[in-house]
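Example 9 (inverse folding). The structure is encoded as follows.
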């Protein structure tokens, strides 16, 4: 059984799901569009790209960015949202360090531009910690401003290519199976 069939059997129909949710019912005309739930190869690959790009956006804007881009491009909404989840407190610092270094490379900065230590969250003062994270981000300046979108685009492009290749391999495998079955008759 293909992944597509497996998902279609287990996923509730979007119209039912939206009608049953009091919070999402007003958004049903926008979220009910069939393209947002489509499992076509191109739409899923673009949703992965959008999700990976949006995952590098700051804090709580990741899923909002992914949802707005999915609505704009009419691509698979659940896949775009799920693909933002690769960023979390454990991956945030390494990804932003990589973005910082990529930004330095793209800007041609060879000097000693040192990344300051990441602010530690004490578990009590969330608002102050968020301001400290913002100050940490702003201290890194242009390398980060250039590096984050560049890394997001690279991850998105890589995700798109990988999904397209894996999907193509799965289709070719199914064709070969069908050909073998027909050839044995």
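The amino acid assigned to each position is listed next.
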């Amino acid at each position: 059984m293909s992944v597509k069939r497996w998902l279609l059997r287990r996923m509730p129909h979007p119209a039912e799901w939206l009608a049953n949710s009091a919070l999402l019912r007003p958004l049903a005309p926008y979220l009910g569009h069939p393209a947002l739930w489509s499992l076509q190869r191109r739409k899923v690959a673009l949703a992965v790209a959008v999700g990976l790009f949006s995952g590098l956006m700051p804090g709580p804007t990741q899923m909002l960015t992914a949802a707005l881009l999915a609505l704009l491009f009419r691509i698979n909404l659940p896949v775009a949202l799920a693909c933002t989840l690769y960023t979390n407190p454990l991956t945030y610092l390494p990804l932003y360090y990589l973005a910082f270094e990529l930004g330095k490379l793209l800007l041609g900065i060879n000097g000693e531009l040192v990344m300051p230590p990441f602010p530690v969250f004490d578990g009590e003062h969330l608002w102050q910690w968020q301001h400290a994270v913002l100050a940490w981000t702003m201290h890194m300046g242009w390398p980060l401003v250039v590096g984050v979108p560049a890394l997001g685009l690279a991850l998105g492009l890589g995700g798109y290519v990988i999904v397209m290749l894996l999907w193509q391999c799965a289709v070719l495998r199914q064709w070969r199976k069908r050909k073998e079955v027909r050839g044995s008759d």
